[in-house]
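Exercise 3.2. Students should predict the tertiary structure of the chain below and write it as structure tokens, then compare their answer with the key that follows.

Predict this chain's 3D structure.
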Amino acid sequence: MDDDRRIKKYVDVSAVFTSSGQLMPKRIMTDDGMKYTIDRITEIRRAASTRAGGSGIRYTCSISGRQCYLFYEENFRWFVEMKAS
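Answer key:
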């Protein structure tokens, strides 16, 4: 079995609009109550999630020193690529 298999997991996100109108996520909240503060966003671009399926605006985020991808779909939903259990 592939240990790197990922699934699409929808999450709640706290975000702000900058004065220039850009949507910037600040914190991710999972359905089990975990909260993750985004330390830094290093890239924003339109991309597909090749590991979990789906596409949208991909935010490359740093959370506690680890890189993750956060996607904003056109239907106004956020998702992350999570390890399949």
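Discussion points: The first strand starts at residue 6 and ends at 17. Residues 6-83 form one domain.
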